[in-house]
């Protein structure tokens, strides 16, 4: 028996005069859908826009879809007063959402595809969303929201260019954004705002670089003194905070990837447990000779496994300066006893940490230095995270390992000199022609390292450049804009940037470098 869900909310709508749309005209949706056709009719949206679920197999017991629909309505209203009259005119009465699968577990690689159609006529007129999973339906609601805007003449919400028919699915299953809460603490509401902004361009992995040498802000119940390494008493996250962030993200179709970077980038660990340092004067990398080091890693990952349910955990492994191991007599003696050079100890540490993570049910992501130094020794399920530059992904997949692309010359958001078009044109599959090897590239990630950002400027540093990468990761390759189409692409991105601003996201101008200020008084869409 088909279940029926009804949600009534306050918005507005009617049909006004139809205007023929030019064939091939621009689709103002970001990222660009796989296929889209449109007409020339302008609809307005009913003040009592309804969501129904005729024919759906998804019960929505956790109200994921209901809440998403209500958020979508709030977004299209943009806090305008909707008080126009639609008396005597046909209305876009609602959205019927059909989800074919009953589950709502956000597994990696979950089907995110959807179909969206908006008819121009009917009695009543209902948009139709069809998706295999609720997470595809969430993307469809976001696309629907971008078809709507406030009509200042009628004081209603309008939807232009009906009828619409959109079929859409992601190009890559991993579309990530890294945030860094060690270099600067980010309050929980700021992290949630970043998660919300990710969904507007269909990014689906929040890579949370939680700790680093500067600070250790998260509670670890198994080792409660670790967060003594936080900057201050108030710049911390409890385990309940982490659970809240993960659940908030998952309800929006975003997985949270937790990272602890070992054995380097870990000086802050020793504030609470000095025995983790090789010595009081040489404090990182972590002490490879001590069993307690690996017991602490085990405790952290054990606690993580109760909170961070994503199948992957990131164990870092980059920029490891091993000189402390040979300059500390006790550690140097241990190396000699085990017949190890510094490079051997580095490999030993990474591989042992991988085994610990596997024992807690995780698959491991490591930064590319691990592959560059001992790729043939890595666990064969390792995902190699490229960051140093181009050409690495093709070597990784040729070796049969999976890869995530974040080459710093193009996809590091803290590199303010990299403009949005550099982000857009960065192709994860460059020089990878073998279809089997192409499938080993899981996707890509833009990285918001926080040495020079905090809650005051994170969003304008992320956006709109991250959106350029988001379209590269979502849209089919053949539909992506080419270098000679930059002018039209820039106009589309400028409109999306304005949409972000309207939604309360402090996205910087498209023109100029990252985090630029507006050059002069002008319209948002010209900046």
Annotated CATH architecture of the largest domain: Alpha-Beta Barrel
Beta strand count: 18
Spatial shape: elongated
Compute the average pLDDT: 94
- Cα-atom Rg, whole angstroms? 25 Å
Catalytic activity: Hydrolysis of terminal non-reducing N-acetyl-D-hexosamine residues in N-acetyl-beta-D-hexosaminides
Domain Beta-hexosaminidase eukaryotic type N-terminal: 29-147
Domain Glycoside hydrolase family 20 catalytic: 172-476
Enzyme class: hydrolase
Provide a descriptive summary of the structure in words.
This protein is α/β, with parallel strands linked by helices. The protein has two domains: 35-168, Chitobiase/beta-hexosaminidase domain 2-like (Chitobiase, domain 2, 2-Layer Sandwich), CATH 3.30.379.10; 174-484, Glycosidases (TIM Barrel). It is 31% helix and 18% strand. The chain has 17 helices and 18 strands. The chain has helices at residues 64-77, 134-146, 188-200, 239-250, 269-272, 291-305, 323-327, 329-337, 342-359, 369-374, 392-398, 408-411, 420-424, 435-438, 458-462, 465-474, 486-502, and strands spanning 7-8, 15-16, 35-37, 41-52, 92-99, 114-118, 125-131, 148-151, 156-162, 164-168, 174-180, 205-209, 255-259, 312-314, 363-367, 383-386, 402-405, 441-448. Strands 1, 2, 3, 4, 5, 6, 7, 8, 9 and 10 form a ten-stranded mixed beta sheet that branches. An eight-stranded parallel beta sheet has the order 13-12-11-18-17-16-15-14. α3 packs parallel to α4 (239-250). It is elongated. Mean pLDDT is 94; it is low at 1-24. This is Beta-hexosaminidase. Residues 1-20 form the signal peptide.
């Amino acid at each position: 028996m088909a279940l029926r869900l009804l949600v009534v909310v306050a918005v507005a709508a009617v049909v006004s005069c139809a205007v023929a749309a030019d064939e091939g005209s621009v689709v103002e949706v970001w990222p660009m859908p796989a296929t889209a056709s449109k007409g020339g009719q302008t609809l307005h949206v009913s003040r009592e826009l309804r969501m129904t679920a005729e024919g759906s197999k998804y019960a929505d017991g956790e109200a994921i879809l209901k809440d998403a629909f209500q958020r979508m309505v709030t977004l299209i209203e943009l806090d305008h007063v909707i008080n126009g009259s639609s008396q005597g005119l046909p209305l876009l009465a609602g959205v019927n959402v059909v989800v074919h699968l009953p589950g709502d577990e956000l597994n990696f690689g979950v089907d995110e595809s959807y179909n969206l159609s908006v008819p121009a006529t009917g009695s009543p007129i209902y948009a139709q969303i069809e998706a295999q999973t609720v997470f595809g339906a969430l993307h469809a609601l976001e696309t629907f929201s971008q078809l709507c805007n406030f009509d200042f003449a009628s004081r209603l919400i309008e939807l232009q260019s009906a009828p619409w028919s959109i079929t859409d699915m992601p190009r890559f299953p991993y579309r990530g954004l890294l945030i860094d809460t060690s270099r600067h603490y980010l309050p929980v509401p700021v992290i949630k705002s970043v998660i919300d902004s990710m969904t507007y361009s269909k990014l689906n992995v929040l890579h949370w670089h939680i700790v680093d040498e500067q600070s250790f802000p998260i509670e670890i119940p198994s080792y409660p003194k670790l967060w003594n390494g936080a900057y201050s008493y108030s710049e911390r996250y409890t385990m309940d905070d982490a659970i809240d962030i993960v659940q908030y993200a998952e309800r929006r179709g975003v997985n949270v990837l937790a990272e602890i970077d070992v054995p380097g980038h870990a000086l802050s660990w020793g504030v609470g447990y000095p025995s983790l340092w090789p010595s009081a004067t040489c404090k990182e990398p972590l002490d490879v000779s001590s069993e307690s080091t690996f017991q602490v890693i085990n405790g952290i990952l054990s606690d993580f496994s109760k909170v961070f349910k994503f199948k992957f955990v990131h164990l870092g492994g980059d920029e490891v300066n091993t000189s402390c191991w040979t300059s500390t007599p006790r550690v140097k003696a241990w190396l000699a006893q085990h017949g190890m050079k510094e490079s051997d100890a580095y490999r030993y540490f990474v591989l042992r940490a991988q085994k610990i993570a596997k024992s807690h049910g995780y698959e491991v992501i490591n930064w590319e230095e691990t592959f560059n130094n001992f790729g043939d020794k890595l666990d064969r399920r390792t995902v190699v995270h490229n960051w140093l530059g181009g050409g690495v992904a093709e070597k990784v997949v040729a070796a049969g390992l999976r890869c995530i692309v974040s080459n710093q010359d193009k996809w590091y958001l803290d590199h303010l000199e990299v403009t949005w078009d550099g982000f857009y044109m960065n192709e994860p599959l460059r020089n990878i022609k073998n279809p089997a090897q192409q499938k080993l590239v899981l996707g890509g990630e833009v990285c918001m390292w926080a040495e020079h950002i905090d809650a005051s400027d994170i969003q304008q540093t992320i956006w709109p450049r991250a959106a350029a990468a988001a379209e590269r990761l979502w849209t089919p390759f053949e539909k992506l804009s080419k270098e000679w189409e930059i002018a039209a692409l820039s106009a589309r991105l400028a409109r999306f940037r304005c949409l972000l601003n309207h939604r309360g996201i402090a996205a910087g101008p498209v023109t100029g470098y990252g985090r630029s200020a507006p050059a002069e008084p002008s319209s948002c869409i010209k900046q």
